[in-house]
């Protein structure tokens, strides 16, 4: 065990300072409960759920674990008020917010006894989140899968700057899927890590088998950040990606890109397994992922390697 | 002192496994000698030098230090054969190669008793370099300043993959300017670090005072990787950058971009201090750099923070 007091463990009531990221189409109650039961924080990703679906996932997760779990909420979600009513009404005690202004909902959640962590891509946004009263921030670098900041700051550069900017606990995200990279994040000043891509490759994730195979096959350079004129997103290069690139290279307008993106591309790719026409959101660390394992094995392996790495460095 | 044997120190005959990067227009003999005298490896950046100018820098560096130093060579340099004759003729014992095929010159250098390290942006290129017989590789991530790989893989993701791919020593580069980030690189498996941007901000660097001020003023998100249709390069956003972006957004051809880039933009920006029309190559870590210090202070601060950080982790 980590013997030093850890503010992320204390804040969230978890054994290991590892957060299983809330991810569209990949992290329902099964994954969140499995991660929680393994001693990490499990997060249900609500951005791909209708409000009633989220309620069902929360209730199933509560039955499947006695450990703390939370919900990740994209603040730009259209029916955000319904989502927030369900989350607080069902007694969820931890919410990770992202993609929006933390000032809007933090007070509402805090008044209802919810611990709030906000995801940021810059130290400027970290300061704003701290000012809004959040309990911690996730500093997410350019290498992370899915939606991403416009600054393109990598985890190696972002984490120290965010740690300098705020005094609340900083959780590092982006490029972290092993105990070595977790230890690197701690060297940079983080007190916890949020892991996404590696949990996409868990038995309990709801990612389609085709998508898991595509992640296993992905090599370095196979993901790129694209759609920067809309919202930047990191995904695996496939036919859909090539269409986007072709359109961007000839200077396509925002409207044309929106039409090309259309609706439900993410579901089509990650949940339904259409590897050609779907959107396949995953981090750069996919280049090093090959196997599907249980969430419990993933948590254990990350923690054991973290402990080994920090001891190796200490003895150096 | 690091008590563990370190292959990078052994290979290069240096005290600390810190390499001062060879950089166009910023790292002549003064910086290389100062870094060498401080116990790091100093590198003369030859890509911005005519062959005769390089000879002069090598000779001055030899007079200014008894410690090992090297020359960084971009393998796409037009008169590369002249450069290589001068380097070996003048008795330089360490060459870092980049931007080209390591198979072309490695044997020539090794036969003349030169230690060769090649800079790579992927584990595929690392394997090729190892096959070509180089003694070590620099794994340089997306956050690094100047020319950069097309894969856009960040240091956090790249270093572990390169360490898995080759058995020769791996030196991490990109986003590393402090002892904390050096320790993060070691957690990822690197045995040394190459530091660029922070040495641009040294008293001994030949960067123009205006450029140093621009680096001090740079905030997160102020550098971006651009000119991806030609050779991707990371630089500070200025008027020149905006012209490039505008051209790219409307789908400009490669020829048009080449004409826009023109000649001597890098010299104009970094050496002559034209902050509007010049090319200002620097890494993302510039967002955290504010002060100009001596190379000796930079080496000492990085090393002391590295030692402190690894001890903190070990005791965790």
What report would you give on this structure?
2 copies of one chain form a homodimer. The first copy, chain A, is an alpha/beta fold. Chain A folds into 2 domains: 7-206 and 289-315, TIM Barrel; 209-285, no CATH class. Chain A is built from 14 helices and 11 strands. Chain A has helices at 7-12, 29-37, 51-64, 80-89, 106-111, 123-131, 155-165, 179-187, 197-200, 209-217, 239-249, 254-261, 265-271, 295-315; strands spanning 18-20, 42-45, 69-74, 94-98, 115-120, 136-140, 146-147, 170-173, 192-195, 223-226, 233-236. In chain A, helix 8 (179-187) links the parallel strand 8 (170-173) and strand 9. In chain A, helix 3 packs parallel to helix 4. Chain A starts with 6 loop residues before the first helix and ends with a helix. At the A-B interface, helix 7, helix 8 and helix 14 of A face helix 7, helix 8 and helix 14 of B.
Number of strands of chain A: 11
Strand order of the largest sheet of chain A: 1-9-8-6-5-4-3-2
Radius of gyration of chain A, CA atoms, in whole angstroms: 18 Å
Query: Runs of chain A with pLDDT <50, length 5+?
Result: none
| SSE string of chain A, helices as H and strands as E | HEHEHEHEHEHEEHEHEHHEEHHHH
Task: Specify the oligomeric state.
Answer: homodimer
Relevant CATH superfamily of the largest domain in chain A: Aldolase class I
Question: Can you give the helix content of chain A as a percent range?
Answer: 40-55%
Shape of chain A: globular
Q: Roughly how many Å apart are the termini of chain A?
A: 21 Å
Count of helical regions of chain A: 14
- CATH architecture of the largest domain in chain A, please? Alpha-Beta Barrel
Major β-sheet annotation of chain A: 8 strands, parallel
- Number of separate domains of chain A: 2
Q: Approximately how much beta-strand content do the residues of chain A carry?
A: 5-15%
